[in-house]
Specification:
The complex is a heterodimer of chains A (326) and B (321).
Chain A: E1 3-7, H1 8-22, E2 26-30, H2 46-49, E3 54-56, H3 61-73, E4 77-81, H4 92-99, H5 102-105, E5 114-120, H6 135-139, E6 145-147, H7 152-164, E7 168-174, E8 181-185, E9 197-200, E10 205-209, H8 213-226, E11 231-235, E12 238-240, H9 244-254, E13 257-264, H10 269-281, E14 290-294, H11 303-309, H12 313-323
Helix pairs in contact in A: 1-7, 3-4, 8-12
Chain B: H1 5-30, H2 45-52, E1 60-62, H3 68-74, H4 78-85, H5 119-133, E2 139-144, H6 151-162, E3 167-173, E4 176-177, E5 180-181, H7 182-185, E6 202-206, H8 210-225, E7 231-236, H9 254-261, H10 265-275, H11 281-304
Parallel strand pairs in B: 1-2, 2-3, 3-7, 6-7
Antiparallel strand pairs in B: 4-5
Helix pairs in contact in B: 1-2, 1-3, 1-10, 1-11, 2-3, 2-8, 4-11, 5-6
């Protein structure tokens, strides 16, 4: 497969171009989309290529989310842009009480093919209301699927699967990764939801991660190599459904696990994953499962404090050394 | 809009069906055969039937926790509705929804809703979908005076207005949001005046006059189908029963209820049909009997249907897991 280098933003835009050309029922709804192709340039070229199918909404997150539900139930495939994932709080009823439950409550009468696309994450000095990682809330809501990609190729393949999924899919992309570059296949492809990827093979410890934390693990793994610790990196990519098989395969090999995410630690996805690992793989473990996440405070504004609160490469190294007893 | 004898008698029959269905539901709830809680719309049939009498099968409706009337008037199957109330496997939602979540997507009923005002952003989305698909369907949201005070109503109405969506916002002002009187909770008194803020036509209608409701709805539907945008209808009515079955109703007087009982929409319409010589006492009795027979059949279907297997709870969550 031939490849070229794209940013995460360009990978997303390319996927949308390809799928919107393929199917007229796909449309994009959100705030500030048309003038600049999205606040992060994530919809570059789409307003020109698909006039009328990328729609600027008033600042009405409740309405936007509800419109997604209503349109999905009546024959469309809405792609809802949530501007900043922090504003999901303004659409929680529509997402968690309506989108997640309507199919179930109606006894399976209807499909809700809907992507809720959410730029998330910290590190931009954007303070507490523009920096969160809220994926665990939605993992905790039966009826939703949750995807958190890291590399451009994952963004492209997973967004296509999300668009074609007949269920509401929460799709979180880290704001700091929009400009991140990586190889993306020239040919069209789809990455099935619920498939983790072993991004680096290793023998000594499994670094289980997703989203921006993948890059922390990548950096940590190369430092660990200097200490003769051979880390394996499992990028979960989809949190719900979760690819527990790939996680288990990795742990059966390394017998040690460190879970890394940018979201704050308490009640985070790491807690769920750690519980499942101890339940299903207890006898495989040679050390307790360690978790690395942000400290349990809102994200502070000032750089010195924000950097302190967020998980760092050093935190990953410390956890990896602890579970390998080095 | 047709108003021939046949059409009017069908409307009357539908109103009687809604009333008898809900009366029956109340009885079987009291007898402990219907689990949970139910909210009856007895007294509000002029609005539900009047509005739905102007809709096509492919038009969309979202309704509320008080939605039996809208569903029956839109053409829902009485057997599957009754079975759902009883929590049976043969119900509309296979027992997963109950009274508050009945839906029939095959006839455009996008669902009742347990969240007050929950349906309004959804109906705006259905309206947007209609516009994008370029059909001439319309989308109707029923909601109450209580819902009118929730934020989603504002967002849904504003969006429908700026995009000129084919939506009807039908507020059934039944005077009480659960226990809270409308005149206490609604700052401006009337609700229809709020439509002006969205540059949307708004009209106050005697919701107990099914023909007045029908006339206002027909022109709003025509506007919507012609691409002229949404309309706000405030159907002023009254629920003759409590907020839920078993409601002690300490928030209102029996005198007040009696005043509204005198304005019963079915009796009012029946008298009008009698004056026009469209309906004799004998014919009215025949209609009641025919409706009763249909309901008895629905009741027997529900009672004889099995409960879901406990494990059925795990099905229907995702369309592809």
């Amino acid at each position: 497969m031939s490849e070229r280098i794209l940013t995460c933003s360009a990978a997303l835009a390319e996927a949308l171009h390809e799928e919107m050309r393929r199917d007229e029922s796909i449309f994009i709804l959100g705030e500030d989309l048309v003038a600049h192709g999205g606040v992060f340039g994530q919809f570059k070229g789409i307003p020109e290529a698909f006039p009328g199918r990328i729609i600027d909404s008033p600042i009405s997150e409740t309405g936007i989310a509800g419109c997604g539900v209503g349109a999905a139930m009546t024959g469309m495939r809405p792609f809802i842009d949530f501007h900043f994932s922090d504003f999901l709080t303004c659409g929680m009823d529509e997402l968690c009480n309506q989108a997640a439950k309507i199919r179930y409550m109606s006894g399976g009468q209807v499909k809700l093919p809907m992507v809720v696309w959410c730029p998330d994450g910290a590190g931009l000095r954007a303070a507490a209301q523009h920096s969160q990682s809220l994926e665990a809330w939605f993992v905790h809501t039966p009826g939703l699927k949750v995807v958190v990609p890291s590399e451009p190729a994952d963004v492209k393949g997973l967004i296509k699967a999300a668009i074609w999924d007949d269920n509401p899919v929460m799709f979180f992309q880290h704001k700091k990764l929009f400009a991140k570059e990586g190889p993306v296949p020239e040919e069209e492809y789809v990455i099935e939801l619920g498939r983790a990827a072993v991004k680096k093979e290793g023998r000594d410890v499994s670094l289980l991660c997703y989203g921006a934390a993948y890059y922390l693990c990548l950096e940590a793994a190369s430092t660990l190599r200097e200490d003769a610790i051979d880390a394996e990196i499992v990028d979960l990519r989809t949190l719900k459904p979760l690819d527990m098989d790939t996680v288990a395969r990795s742990i059966r090999k390394t017998h040690r696990a460190v879970i890394v995410h940018e979201a704050c630690l308490t009640g985070g996805f790491g807690a769920e994953l750690a519980a499942r690992i101890q339940d299903e793989l207890f006898d495989e473990l040679d050390a307790p499962v360690k978790r690395v996440g942000a400290k349990d405070v809102p994200i502070p504004f000032s750089p010195s404090m924000e950097d302190f609160v967020l998980p760092s490469v050093a935190d990953v190294l410390e956890a990896a050394r602890a579970v390998t007893y080095r | 809009m047709s108003s021939d004898k046949q059409t009017l008698l069908e409307i009357y029959r539908t109103m009687v069906t809604v009333r008898r269905f809900e009366t029956m539901a109340g009885e079987y709830f009291a007898a402990g055969q219907i689990p949970g809680f139910i909210h009856l719309s007895i007294g509000q049939e002029g609005s539900s039937v009047g509005v739905c009498s102007c809709l096509r099968k492919d038009d969309y409706v979202v309704t509320t926790h008080r939605g039996h009337g809208h569903m029956i008037a839109k053409g829902a199957d009485l057997k599957r509705m009754t079975a759902e109330l009883f929590g049976k496997k043969t119900g509309y939602c296979k027992g997963k929804g109950g009274s508050m979540h009945i839906a029939d997507f095959s006839i455009g009923i996008l669902g009742a809703n347990g969240v007050v005002a929950g349906g309004l952003p959804i109906i705006t989305g259905a309206g947007l979908s209609i516009k994008l698909r370029k059909t001439d369907q319309v989308a109707v949201a029923f909601f109450g005076d209580g819902a009118a005070n929730r934020g989603p109503v504002h967002e849904a109405m504003n969006m429908a207005a700026i995009w000129k969506l084919p939506v009807l916002f039908v507020c059934e002002n039944n005077q009480y949001a659960s226990t809270t009187p409308m005149h206490y909770a609604c700052s401006a008194g009337d609700l229809y005046t709020r439509a002006a803020a969205y540059d949307m036509p708004g009209e106050k209608i005697n919701g107990n006059d099914v023909l007045a409701v029908r006339e206002a709805t027909a022109s709003a539907v025509a506007r919507a189908r012609a691409g002229e945008g949404p309309t706000f209808l405030e159907n002023v009515t009254y629920r003759l029963k409590g907020h839920y079955e078993g409601d002690p109703q300490k928030y209102r007087t029996t005198e007040e209820i009696e005043i509204w009982r005198q304005k019963d929409p079915i009796e009012h319409f029946g008298r009008m049909l009698a004056q026009k010589k469209y309906l004799t006492k004998k014919h009215a009795a025949q209609i009641r009997e025919a409706v009763q027979a249909e309901l008895s059949e629905a009741l027997a279907f529900a009672q004889n249907s099995p409960f879901p297997e406990p494990g059925d709870a795990m099905a229907d969550l995702y369309s592809n897991p």
